[in-house]
Amino acid sequence: MRFDTPATTNPIDQLKIVGKPVDRIDGPLKTTGTAPYAYERHDVVPNQAYGYVVGSAIAKGRIASIDLSTAQRAPGFLAIVTADNAGRLGRGRFNTARLLGGPDIEHYHQAIALVVAETFEQARAAAQLVRVDYVRTDGMFDLAAAKDSWTPAAGLGAPADPGVGDFAGAFPTAPIQLDAAYTTPDHSHAMMEPHASIAAWEGDSLTVWTSNQMINWTVGDLAQTLGIAREKVRLISPFIGGGFGGKLFLRADALLAALGARAARRPVKVALPRPLMANNTTHRPATIQRIRIGATRDGKITAIGHESWSGDLPGGGPENAVQQTRLLYAGANRMTATRLAILDLPEGNAMRAPGEAPGLMALEIAMDEMAEKLGLDPIEFRVRNDTQVDPENPGRPFSQRQLIECLRTGAERFGWNKRNAQPGRLRDGRWLTGMGVAAGLRNNLLTTSAARVRLDHRGVVTVETDMTDIGTGSYTIIAQTAAEMMGVPLDKVVVRLGDSSFPVSAGSGGQWGANNSTAGVYAACVKLREAVAQKLGFNSADAVFGDGQVRSGNRTVSLAEAAGESGLVAEDAIEYGDLGKQYQQSTFVAHFVEVGVDVATGETHIRRMLAVCAAGRILNPKSARSQVIGAMTMGVGAALMEQLAVDKRRGFFVNHDLAGYEVPVHADIPHQEVIFLDETDPISSPMKAKGVGELGLCGVGAAVANAIYNATGIRVRDYPITLDKLLAGLPEA
Amino acid sequence: MSKVTLTVNGANRELELDTRTTLLDALREHLQLTGTKKGCDHGQCGACTVMVDGQRINSCLTLAVMHEGDEITTIEGLGTPGNLHPMQAAFVKHDGYQCGYCTPGQICSAVAVLNEIKAGIPSHVSADLTVAQQTTAAELRERMSGNICRCGAYSNILDAITEVAGGQT
Ligand code: FES
Ligand code: FES
């Protein structure tokens, strides 16, 4: 189905099931421990052996020699894979560093061997017996030091230095100016389920049960890396224990399981040990950002400039932290620039809301600072600089943009009028208290997505698509879509996901999953409705699907009967025309945070949080809300504690486990409120939906930072805002 | 190798194990009870929480052979998809999970936490050690803080536990 004109009324608009806060259909499996994750598939193939990954102990250099003989004599030893014996390996389209290093080493904990043994304990013990002699070479591990050796870098689909007007001329002449630098550190996805795979060969065909967000990308990259035809690779990933961008790509677990299984001549399972994950896999790169804003005295932005520096391995990409600044506020003279330095740290790549998450952490502090300089309420300042069109291209309107409504609704619900504009004035016992606000924007990305739908003789509708559910609720919203379209209750729908033998979907990333994958299911269901009508001799235009039946004129037939013994099947994809070019499609949020800062210790405690989102039709308010509160929680982590500490001499992330890399726990998070504004966006898809999974993270960190400033009067521009950065500025207790 | 007999969810299970096998791996790899999750294998995340003789522990931090004769309750022992334990049902109702990977550990911990409060065991945030402990939000958050949820379902998990505890949600 081609989608190139705005949606009109369609069966989804009935909203009998879509738009309802139904419980997740996979909830009973997840809460009873019966949802099978990758490493747990004892059921799929017998005789599985265990693989254990050996990671490089140096960041850059080469392996001079590797002695496997002791490991090979270890009890239970079956096989070992190294670059020496793995055969010729390619590199996946989405990988920067090779997934099996040696002799050259590109980063710390790059995998250099997989040891396969009968049991996990034996594989782990044998892996410790691999002796490696390295020749270390110098590397660049310090972004601040590498910053000046940058090259201009284009973000995804963006020119390197987009801008309009004359920023260089307009900024210095603006009556009110801000010029400030901000830093965000490297972040780790730290999803709870480690990357894991079980691989089994049958002749030259490979099946991998894995944990992966993007089935189709990863089939392609696994085939390309192994040098086999993609038709020979099957990936199965029905449950994924968190991804956040860390499982978008082929990673070492899947490749090494495949190589290990080939070497051991039996199925092999591999999970990345937790302490290997931060350095072996990808991370969100640190940024250094400079923001300049010039405005008139009445608070109209006349010049806005945002530059960002980040680093990556040779051949890698930048953190596109200036992206939102191109769209979020008005202003005639604009400059954005993305700079990339070469670093020899592990590979940087996408983490939830790549670009916007760190970009808004900086931009939305800058807006708070600018509002203060202007003597304006930070909400009012943002309202004065709203734009309903793409500021770089005013002929291109936003399809929907309710940012002002988000801010106003939130202000009212949060009690913003109780905020004291003078920082450091409110006290509750030992706590200095304050409120902060930030806006967020995240684009709605359109991408082809296909599904197959079957109707059987029991009237059961089965949806098959390679879409994944990484905790986002895909199973449930896809079931809701199919139920609404076919006029059946939810319990008459079966959803099967995450299998490369199913039609190729959008996958899970960039908050594009919900809208695109359900639109693909919509398209397939339209075809299935036509097939039903045609089989019954109904005119498909006036056939009504409801209550498990299809009606036309005075004839009513149950879907079970219509399907008959042989059943009916339809497959289709949603494909997009130019609406994404004609309109800027984005989602918007206003975040409100109240903090208390302990006047003696500088400890920050989040007291209240509210997010108001405008993101098109909300397909399931219950699971969508969970996406948003989860993102708010991650944003608290980014604001207060998350930071991969770089050893700038040895070139690695030091705190590479869940004890050293701190993420929020129960005690850090208060009750969270989320409001979804009533919105449908007929420009986005027949579902009229957009995404929320990343939107929820956009701006939260800055809202926390601004609340801390309001509480203490201390402006911290270097994340995370740990207590050591506050102590010196706190008043006498 | 060493023999060990455990009572797992009420059933006697005899195992012959490499002595290095953790209780977690005995459950997941040998008994194929994969409801108990491995998030870190280092006692840092709580995904592997089970109850041993009624007390919650991180099963990755203990060797199986140390548990001769012990009663182990895992998530599979609490309820089944067709017959959910009240805590499991409350997690579904309040959407107290997203990816589901921390969930069995959260639920086992939550069940044990309510028992700990009932038994009068104080926590770091208990103001008074001499009175009966209360099921307040602060107590629940403190006691649940060994169970990380990177998906960030905390607010909903708290609602679920509070409902089971009989409080207001
Ligand atoms: S797996 Fe045991 S605490 Fe993480
Ligand atoms: S539900 Fe994913 S970690 Fe808790």
Please outline what is shown here.
Chain A has 733 residues and is of the alpha+beta class.
Structure description:
The complex is a heterodimer of chains A (733) and B (169). Chain A is 25% helix and 25% strand. With 733 residues, chain A is an alpha+beta fold. The relative contact order of chain A is 0.14. Chain B is an alpha+beta fold. Chain B has 2 domains: 2-78, Roll (Ubiquitin-like (UB roll)); 86-168, [2Fe-2S]-binding domain (DNA polymerase, domain 1), CATH 1.10.150. Chain B has helices at 23-30, 75-78, 86-93, 103-118, 137-143, 154-164; strands at residues 2-8, 11-17, 49-52, 55-58, 71-73. Chain B has a 5-stranded mixed beta sheet with strand order 2-1-5-3-4, with helices on both faces. The longest helix of chain B has 16 residues, at 103-118. The mean pLDDT of chain B is 96. The chains are: A alpha+beta (733), B alpha+beta (169). At the A-B interface, helix 1, helix 3 and helix 16 of A face helix 1, helix 2, helix 3, helix 4 and helix 5 of B. One FE2/S2 (inorganic) cluster (FES) binds next to loops of chain B. One FE2/S2 (inorganic) cluster (FES) sits between chains B (97-103, 149-151, 153) and A (192, 242, 471).
Give the uncertain stretches of chain B in residue-range form: none
CATH architecture of the largest domain in chain B: Orthogonal Bundle
Q: Rg of chain A, please?
A: 27 Å
* CATH C-level of the largest domain in chain A: Alpha Beta
**Strand content bin of chain A:** 25-35%
Extract low-pLDDT stretches of chain A.
none
> Got a strand count of chain B?
5
- Global mean pLDDT of chain B: 96
Class per helix and strand makeup of chain A: alpha+beta
Assign the CATH class of the largest domain in chain B: Mainly Alpha
- Average pLDDT across residues of chain A? 97
Strand tally of chain A:
31
Oligomer status:
heterodimer
Determine the N-to-C terminus distance of chain B. Answer: 50 Å
SSE series of chain B: EEHEEEHHHHH
Heteromolecules bound:
FE2/S2 (inorganic) cluster
% residues in beta strands of chain B = 5-15%
Please give the share of residues in helix of chain A.
10-25%
Assign the CATH superfamily of the largest domain in chain A. Aldehyde oxidase/xanthine dehydrogenase, molybdopterin binding domain
Largest interface: A-B, 65 and 63 residues
Strand line-up in the sheet with most strands of chain B: 2-1-5-3-4
